[in-house]
């Protein structure tokens, strides 16, 4: 584990192990906290990200799918599309699997346990690859992104939604106060994990955003990259093609 790496529990375990433990722990509270802490805006961010995908995609891979909210948004906007969601946390997937059954989407959504840094899918397979709030948690960012690129068809799209840091006064200062001090307290009380929502703040501070993340996407081989920031820069949609 590199010294610079931001991890949930700051212990000797790998970042991947710590991230898996953390999401396994908070899985039962994850959806509720997403809605509460973002005042429901996270659902609009996912909608906007999926609106970037071509209309004729037939197979999409949703990386770090968690409880499958992005997968549901894909089949909502593209009812004929088959979505495979993959995640390292079995507890997050279990919440997702229950939702898939309850919403009668077993024909459209499959959820697999797996690691984005070592994907179990064929090269050049998927029409599009998506990831919402997942890539920041990778142990090795470029390895994870390179694997996503590998399984994408030539000409296929990658759409990544990730937190970024607002730049402008006074929103930047107001948001930072909320993100650094208020959100971790609500997260701690509700998720019963004292570190999870502090890790969220810390990991966003260290994560490359805007042109810096765009540069990494170009480096792994994506063409026609672009980014579009949402809610005054709280998060950003990054896109590119293989
Ligand atoms: C913040 S959640 C996002 C879940 C979902 N995409 C959403 O929009 O709500 C991040 C997810 O990334 C998963 N994750 C982290 N590292 C991963 C990896 N290397 N491969 C697959 N999933 C990973 C975690 O287990 C967790 O479920």
Sequence stretches where pLDDT stays below 50 over 5 or more residues: none
Q: Give the count of helical stretches.
A: 8
Portion of residues within helices: 40-55%
Structural class: alpha/beta
Shape: globular
Structure description:
This protein is an alpha/beta fold. The chain has a single domain, classed as Rossmann fold (3-Layer(aba) Sandwich). Helices cover 44% and strands 21% of the residues. It is built from eight helices and seven strands. The protein has helices at residues 15-37, 41-50, 69-77, 90-102, 141-151, 171-191, 196-206, 211-219; strands at residues 59-63, 82-87, 109-113, 126-132, 152-163, 223-230, 235-241. It has a seven-stranded mixed beta sheet with strand order 3-2-1-4-5-7-6, sandwiched between helices. Helix 4 links the parallel strand 2 (82-87) and strand 3 (109-113). The protein is globular and about 45 Å long. The chain starts with 14 loop residues before the first helix and ends with a strand. It binds S-adenosylmethionine. Residues 16, 19-20, 23, 64-66, 69-70, 86-89, 92, 115-117, 132-134, 137-138, 144 line the site of S-adenosylmethionine.
């Amino acid at each position: 584990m590199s010294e610079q790496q931001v991890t949930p529990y700051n212990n000797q375990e790998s970042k991947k192990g710590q991230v898996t433990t953390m999401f396994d722990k908070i899985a039962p509270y994850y959806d509720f906290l997403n809605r509460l802490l973002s005042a429901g805006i996270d659902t609009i961010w996912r909608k906007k990200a999926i609106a970037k995908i071509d209309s004729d995609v037939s197979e999409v891979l949703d990386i770090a799918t968690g409880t499958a909210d992005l997968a549901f948004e894909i089949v909502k906007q593209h009812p004929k599309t088959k979505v495979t969601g993959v995640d390292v946390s079995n507890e997050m997937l279990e919440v997702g699997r229950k939702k898939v059954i309850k919403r009668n989407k077993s024909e459209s959504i499959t959820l697999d346990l797996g690691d984005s840094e070592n994907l179990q899918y064929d090269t050049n397979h998927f029409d599009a690859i998506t990831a919402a709030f997942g890539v920041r948690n990778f142990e090795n960012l470029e390895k994870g992104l390179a694997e996503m690129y590998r399984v994408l068809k030539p000409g296929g799209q990658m759409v990544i939604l990730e937190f970024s840091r607002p730049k402008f006064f006074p929103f930047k200062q107001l948001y930072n106060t909320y993100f650094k001090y208020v959100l971790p307290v609500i997260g701690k009380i509700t998720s019963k994990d004292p570190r999870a929502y502090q890790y969220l703040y810390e990991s966003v501070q260290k994560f490359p955003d805007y042109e810096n993340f765009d540069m990494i996407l170009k480096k792994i081989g994506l063409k026609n990259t672009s980014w579009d920031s949402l809610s005054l820069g709280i998060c950003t949609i990054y896109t590119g093609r293989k």
